[in-house]
Amino acid sequence: MLDYSRRNTIIPPLRYFEIFDQTSSTMNHKPLHVPGAIAALRQTSGRGRRGRKWHSDYGGAWLTLFLPKSAIAATGPRISLAIGGCLARSLEEHVKSPLGVKWPNDIYTEVGKLAGILIEKSGEVLAIGVGVNVYNKPPSMGANLASQGYSGKIAEIYTIIINSIYEAVYSTDQCLQEAMKRDILKGREVIIDTGEGSLKGVALGIGTLGQLIVKGQDKIYEVYCCSVKAVINGKCSGRRDSTITAH
Q1: 122 and 170 part of one domain
Q2: In angstroms, rounded to a whole number, what is the distance separating the alpha carbons of residues 220 and 201?
Q3: What is the span of the domain harbouring residue 126?
Q4: What tens digit of pLDDT does each residue of 70-82 get?
Q5: Is the Cα dihedral 104, 169, 175, 130 positive or negative?
Q6: Which of 76, 143, 160, 188 is the most exposed place for a label (fewest CB within 10 A)?
Q7: Neighbours of 93 (CB within 10 A)
Q8: Cα(76)–Cα(224) distance, integer angstroms
Q9: What are the residues facing 203 on neighbouring strands?
Q10: For residue 134, what is the domain's CATH number?
Q11: Is 146 found in the same domain as 213?
Q12: What is the model's pTM?
């Protein structure tokens, strides 16, 4: 069994493509060593949560790391937030401004979305996909590392991504704390779409299980999965998947 507490001794085989449909799709039709990683210069069918399109053009870092499901104890938003927390902290060392984490799986600059995380499973394998805008032109309301002062190689970002994932796997609590410190929804008004209606409240922060804690009109809600929108200057932005419990 691999010892994930010693991630520096683990060098996952990396398959590199110039163009690919989406790096996580290889688990469906191509043999792959696990743990292993797929990277692409460009994804033609990159996507985020709920099938939303993720613009993945030349100049970005598009990577999926495949791990055995048994290697990851954390589940749900907890692991995606842990990865986001450690990745944001590591990327901050290479840019001129602080980065924020938006529940449950995005990294933001003050300008807009910089990176996204998507975790999927197939049998006993987890595919952890990460996309980072580096030099590519981001979509509207987006940002890239170059605009924040980064001038290094894209290959360095791949290394940062892989190291951040491994750190989140073996040190989930510490990485989750990094996400909590960078929580950009905290204190903001949010709208939660339950599928049967909507709930309006104020985000109080991220819980230890990765849940978004929201203060409603008369209850405190713990959001694990639905859609969450942040209300900024009277406008909604940032839909996110979320299960809700109230107490």
Answers
A1: yes
A2: 9
A3: 4-181
A4: 888 877 789 999 9
A5: negative
A6: 188
A7: 7
A8: 7
A9: 214
A10: 3.30.930.10
A11: no
A12: 0.83
